């Protein structure tokens, strides 16, 4: 652990020490508190003034409303004017007006405004807001007293009945405006004096606290400071050792507890690092850490996966050197939602090692890096391939009797026609006569029909070879209709005694898939569809193959039967290995599981819907070849 570096204090450093900073902060707080108190008190006092004046104006106008209504009903206009003029003795009342329904001044606190139109007497009442408030007061026949938006005055609008109701309704407006500036100024003065007294008291308290900090707490604060520097330098055994029941003593004890906890956490961190390193080094999965396409770390399992002896032999290598040709740096691509991807690694001996890889980003040595965790699945892939081959052979075994019958018919037909041709030619040869034109035509017809039978047998054998052969796993454009025709030919014998086979092909593009694996998929679905239909009613049942375009660049292939259907409780388990609803000895329970694996491995999906007694529909969604290849090209270039 390096020794602590001494801190060289500048001259201004004393200004930010606790002994000086705390009093300065308290003084600043005193000023801020004084300003805040002044502002809050002023707002509060102004609100009180506004509320008090508004209530006073409301009471005054309510009283005036009753008085003026009475005087106007008794046609005492002069008394009305005297009543309103008497309000002029209030120095805060700016103006009082009584307007008739023609907006002419009937009475006012200012004699000069009598009998003048409101536009000339008081232009403020011609503003849209004032007109709206007067109309509202007349419509409601109730008063409205409010403080102006700028808070400088209180305005009241009260309706006044100008004539008795039996003489026709005429309503005027009583308008009072009271100034608030002087009342608010007086309240601001009181608030300023109160805030000044509070601020002076806080300044005195700040000075006393400053003296206390300067003389009583300075030494203890320096001790805490020294201990903090020692801890920062890595000396986790340092302790302040402050005593006392005051806040600084409590702080010192809390500081020592923090130092103790830091010491314990550092020990725990060191143990965790050791455990984590042991976990990484002994993990059975290969772990690669790389940045900018260059390997930074590889655990022993990764070293063993690639056939090397030491991790140093891999460190610093380009990621591309660890992969087989053709791999487009999948280790540098972040996996979505922890999904594993198949990657072909290059073994030191040159052979291929297949791994399932999950890639994600983490910090490594303080910088962003990428971690790839790979699991060797070479043997598992081989076992899966054997299971697929076994399932393919099981399907062929299921179809063997029907295929034999399919071959037996054309063989019998070919042999019969050849035997006819041989017999005809033999009779003519023994008789020493050349065959007639009619006989030659019959012999040629028999030979042509035998040739057609041979072509039929060759097509059946070709379909069997296409289905049974083992191809590589590469994907490419596939004509789905050709695959379906081949599978339908092989499955015909399993279906024809149970249902009619119907094809409804739409106009679809090629799909991105593997032809042999698609053949295995659809042959399984067709055989299962046939086995789901009981024998005896061929015309009443059907197995229907439908192709169509789906949305967003997908092709959907449906295989629908009118069989017994699948119970709802079995639909969720349908694609699980070794689950079957067939009797013992009829199925292995691997067919639909392998179908699901084939579809998902080629980037598609399979869905099933069924209703007991009405049949089952399997829908296979495969990506269009052109769109899928363009998307893959765009991803690689990005």
UniProtKB/TrEMBL annotation:
Among Gene3D superfamilies, the record links this protein to: 1.10.287.130, 6.10.340.10, Histidine kinase-like ATPase, C-terminal domain, PAS domain
Q: Where is the Histidine kinase domain?
A: 402-626
Where can this protein be found? Membrane
- InterPro entries the UniProt entry points to: HAMP_dom, HATPase_C_sf, HATPase_dom, His_kinase_dom, HisK_dim/P_dom, HisK_dim/P_sf, PAS, PAS-assoc_C
Q: Which GO terms describe its molecular function?
A: ATP binding
Catalyzed reaction equations: ATP + protein L-histidine = ADP + protein N-phospho-L-histidine
Principal location: membrane
Q: Which residue ranges does the record assign to the PAC domain?
A: 339-389
Q: Is Transmembrane there in the keyword field? A: yes
Q: Which UniProt keywords apply?
A: ATP-binding, Kinase, Membrane, Nucleotide-binding, Phosphoprotein, Transferase, Transmembrane, Transmembrane helix
EC main class here is: transferase
Q: Which domain of life is it from?
A: Bacteria
Enzyme Commission number(s) from the entry: 2.7.13.3
Q: Which residue ranges does the record assign to the PAS domain?
A: 272-342
Membrane spanning stretches: 20-38, 198-217
The HAMP domain, residue ranges:
215-267
Its name, as the record gives it, is histidine kinase
């Amino acid at each position: 652990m390096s020794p602590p570096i001494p801190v060289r204090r500048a001259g201004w450093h004393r200004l930010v020490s606790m002994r000086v900073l705390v009093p300065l902060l308290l003084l600043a707080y005193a000023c801020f508190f004084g300003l805040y108190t002044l502002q809050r008190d002023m707002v509060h006092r102004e609100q009180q003034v506004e509320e008090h004046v508004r209530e006073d104006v409301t009471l005054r106008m309510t009283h005036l409303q009753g008085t003026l209504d009475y005087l106007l009903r008794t046609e005492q206009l002069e008394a009305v004017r005297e009543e309103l003029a008497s309000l002029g003795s209030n120095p805060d009342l700016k103006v009082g007006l009584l307007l008739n329904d023609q907006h002419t001044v009937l009475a006012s606190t200012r004699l000069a405004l009598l009998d003048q139109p409101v536009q000339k007497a008081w232009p403020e009442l011609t503003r849209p807001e004032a007109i709206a408030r007067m109309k509202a007061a007349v419509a409601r026949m109730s008063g409205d007293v409010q403080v102006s938006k700028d808070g400088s005055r209180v305005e009241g609008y009260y309706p006044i009945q100008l004539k008795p109701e039996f003489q026709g309704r005429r309503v005027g407006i009583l308008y009072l405006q009271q100034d608030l500036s002087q009342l608010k100024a007086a309240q601001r003065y009181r608030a300023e004096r109160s805030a000044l007294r509070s601020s002076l008291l806080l300044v005195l308290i700040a000075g006393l606290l400053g003296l206390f900090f300067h003389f009583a707490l300075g030494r203890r604060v320096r001790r805490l400071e020294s201990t903090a520097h020692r801890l920062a330098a890595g000396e986790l055994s340092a302790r302040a050792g402050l005593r006392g029941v005051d806040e600084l003593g409590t702080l010192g004890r809390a500081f020592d507890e923090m130092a103790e906890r830091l010491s314990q956490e550092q020990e725990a961190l060191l143990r965790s690092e050791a455990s984590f390193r042991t976990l990484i080094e002994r993990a059975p999965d290969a772990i690669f850490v790389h940045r900018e396409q260059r390997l930074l770390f590889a655990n022993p399992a990764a070293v063993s996966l690639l056939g090397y002896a030491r991790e140093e032999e891999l460190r610093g290598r380009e990621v591309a050197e660890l992969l087989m040709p053709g791999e487009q740096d999948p280790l540098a691509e972040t996996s979505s939602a922890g999904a594993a991807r198949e990657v072909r690694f290059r073994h030191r001996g040159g052979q291929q090692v297949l791994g399932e890889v999950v890639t994600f980003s983490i910090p490594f040595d303080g910088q962003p890096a990428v971690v790839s965790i790979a699991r060797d699945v070479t043997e598992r892939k081989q076992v899966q391939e054997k299971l697929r081959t076994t399932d393919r052979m099981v399907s062929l075994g299921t179809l063997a009797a029907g295929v034999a019958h399919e071959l037996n018919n054309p063989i019998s037909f070919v042999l019969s026609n050849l035997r006819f041709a041989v017999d005809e030619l033999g009779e003519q040869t023994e008789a020493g006569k050349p065959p007639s034109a009619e006989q030659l035509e019959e012999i040629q017809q028999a030979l042509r029909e035998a040739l057609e039978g041979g072509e039929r047998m060759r097509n059946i054998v070709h379909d069997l070879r296409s289905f049974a052969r083992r191809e590589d796993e590469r994907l490419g454009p596939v004509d789905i209709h050709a695959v379906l025709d081949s599978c339908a030919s092989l499955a015909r014998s399993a279906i024809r005694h149970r249902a009619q086979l119907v094809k409804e092909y739409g106009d679809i593009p090629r799909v991105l898939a593997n032809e042999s694996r698609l053949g295995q998929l659809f042959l399984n679905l067709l055989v299962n569809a046939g086995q789901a239909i009981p024998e005896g009613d061929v015309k009443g049942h059907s197995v229907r193959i439908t192709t169509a375009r789906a949305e967003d660049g997908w092709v959907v292939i449906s295989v629908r039967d009118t069989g017994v259907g699948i119970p709802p409780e079995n639909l969720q388990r349908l694609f699980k290995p070794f689950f079957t609803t067939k009797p013992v000895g009829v199925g292995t329970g691997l067919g639909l599981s392998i179908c699901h694996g084939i579809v998902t491995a080629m980037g598609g999906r399979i869905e099933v819907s069924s209703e007991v007694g009405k049949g089952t529909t399997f829908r296979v969604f495969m990506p269009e070849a052109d769109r899928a290849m363009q998307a893959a090209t765009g991803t690689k270039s990005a």
